Amino acid sequence: MEKKAFGWELPVFAHISLLRNPDKSKLSKRKNPVWTSYYLDQGIFPEVLLNYLALMGWSHPEGKDIFSLDEYIKVFDIKDIQKTAPVFDPVKLEWMNGMYIRQSQKSKVKSQILIGIL
C-alpha cells in the first residue's frame, strides 16, 4: 500500500519451478546441499554462484553460460522464465567456477582466495 501511496513502481515477483538433480529427481533440502553458504564454503565464488543461479529457469539470449551481473541486468526479461523444472548440476557449477578463475584478473582472484582462507 505504501508503494502506491508514494507513487513507487511495484516490484514484479515470479516463482520458478522446482529444482531437480541431474538424474531429474526432486532436489531435497534433506538429502542435498541446498544452502548457498555450503557452496561458498566449498570455494565457489559469489559471482559464480549468482551467475549459475540466474540460469535456473532462464537462458541468456546469446546462449552464454558465463556473464556479468551488469550484463544479466541488461538482458534479463521475466517473460523468458521457462516453465520446465531446471536441473541443478554441481559439476557445471564447479566448471563455471574454474572458468571464472581462469578468466579473472589474477590479483583479484588471489585476493578472494586469500580472504577465503583467512
From TrEMBL:
Keywords assigned: Aminoacyl-tRNA synthetase, ATP-binding, Ligase, Nucleotide-binding, Protein biosynthesis
Top-rank taxon, per record: Bacteria
Gene Ontology annotations of biological process type: glutamyl-tRNA aminoacylation
InterPro entries in UniProt: Glu/Gln-tRNA-synth_Ib_cat-dom, GluQ/Sye, Rossmann-like_a/b/a_fold
Keyword Isomerase attached: no
Gene Ontology molecular-function annotations: ATP binding; glutamate-tRNA ligase activity
Record's keyword annotation contains Zinc: no
GO cellular component: cytosol
Pfam (any one): tRNA-synt_1c
Glutamyl/glutaminyl-tRNA synthetase class Ib catalytic domain sequence ranges: 4-95
PANTHER family: GLUTAMATE--TRNA LIGASE (PTHR43311), GLUTAMATE--TRNA LIGASE, MITOCHONDRIAL-RELATED (PTHR43311:SF2)
Similarity comment text for this entry: Belongs to the class-I aminoacyl-tRNA synthetase family.
Annotated protein name in UniProt: Glutamate-tRNA ligase
